[in-house]
Design brief:
283 residues; Uracil-DNA Glycosylase, subunit E; 6-stranded mixed beta sheet; globular; binds uracil
Amino acid sequence: MTGVPSSVAADLAALAWQVEAGADEAIGEVPVNRFDAAEQPARPARAVAVAGRPKSGPKSAPEAAPGTAAAPPGGEGGATAAEADARMIAAGCADLAALRAAIEAFDGCPLKVASKSTVFADGNPAARVMIVGEAPGRDEDMAGLPFVGRSGRLLDRMFETIGLSRRAEAAEEAVYITNVLPWRPPENRDPAGAESAMMMPFLFRHIELKAPKVIVVMGNPAARTVLGTTTGITRLRGQWGDWHGVPVLPMLHPAYLLRNGIAKREAWADLLTLRVWLDENGG
Ligand code: URA
């Protein structure tokens, strides 16, 4: 750039690079000097609420041996009394009926008080595919079943396009559906970390007892809980993870797809990934 001082030229080049990288919008009222911020001591990492794993890294299950339904970080000391209760109760459930009854009787989670139903699961327990969503909404609370509202109808249509249904009798054509939380959070807010942590032993025992061949986690709360990662779902989706040897496919949540129609092509790609896996692993 002739006639422009070199420091200004360098600043302009840096700016052009940022614009090309997509950082073309101011998101704060006042500028932040990141060089200053770098000199401050690093903030301590927030407590990992759901499991004793690093906040990012390989996408595999939180450390917990199947049958023990996930210990919190630091052993007993890291858990609330309700989490410890949940772990003990869940580990003692010998089948899905016992687990459902145990969750219905569990009083440790305040969400239960305001809920009409305990939403346990729907679909065929023999299904090869287990879908894990977030939490019941209003429709699910009324019906006592997961994914029966608008996003549930989309979920059904999505899986039907690859030949899977919650109503199918044949295990190869069926899905089984549950959520991280069995009770509706008020105003359909995201599950709080403490709520997911408390109910995680029940979810993990649910997976153990159901013994799916493959798990689909829909949306951030399900991916975080099952995979123990904080990587966002838009980056995780379509990439296989693992829950104690069971393959886990993260997908965008149908509620997100209802708001972002353009993302349906990514969901379609992920459904095809699942279909291919099923075809290659016994139909
Ligand atoms: N969203 C979910 O994640 N689960 C449901 O059951 C309903 C909506």
